[in-house]
Design goal:
This protein is α+β, with helices and mostly antiparallel strands and 135 residues long. It contains 3 helices and 6 strands, in the order H-H-E-E-E-H-E-E-E.
Length: 135
């Protein structure tokens, strides 16, 4: 395991998603997986905020609207869940928008909808906010 706390948290979430996917398989609504992740992560002692509102501001500070992230874990990791056949560019744009709006650096995009669990990690920093990293 990576010694950096955020990477340890990401590993924990990945392992939890994998275990949930093994148990439920694919075919359920996104909300079922969301509730399952909240249940399992909370049982592990993590702070999980479900359907967490994120504000979007203009450069002068004017509130333009809101996003709602599926999960925010330990107030440092945004998790966007999907239950679709395969992830597409719109899903990536969504998680990147959440990262930009929240000014959080790390996010996971997790798809429970295919026969194989799909997890993508995104990291963004103000130093390179126009070109996020995917791992």
């Amino acid at each position: 395991m990576n010694p950096d706390p955020i990477f340890q948290l990401c590993d924990c979430v990945r392992e939890t998603a994998f275990a949930l996917h093994q148990h439920l398989r694919h075919g359920h609504l996104e909300k079922v997986y969301e509730n399952g992740m909240v249940h399992r992560l909370t049982k592990m002692g993590l702070t999980v905020n479900q359907q967490y509102p994120l504000h979007v501001f203009d450069e002068d500070g004017t509130l333009l609207g809101d996003f709602v992230a599926d999960l925010v874990v330990e107030m440092s990791l945004i998790i966007e869940l999907k239950a679709v056949r395969r992830l597409n560019d719109e899903h990536t744009a969504q998680i990147l928008g959440y990262l930009r709006s929240s000014e959080k650096e790390h996010g996971l995009l997790i798809n429970f909808g295919g026969p194989k669990l799909e997890i993508r990690k995104y990291a963004m920093s103000t130093l390179w906010s126009n070109s996020p990293r995917v791992s």
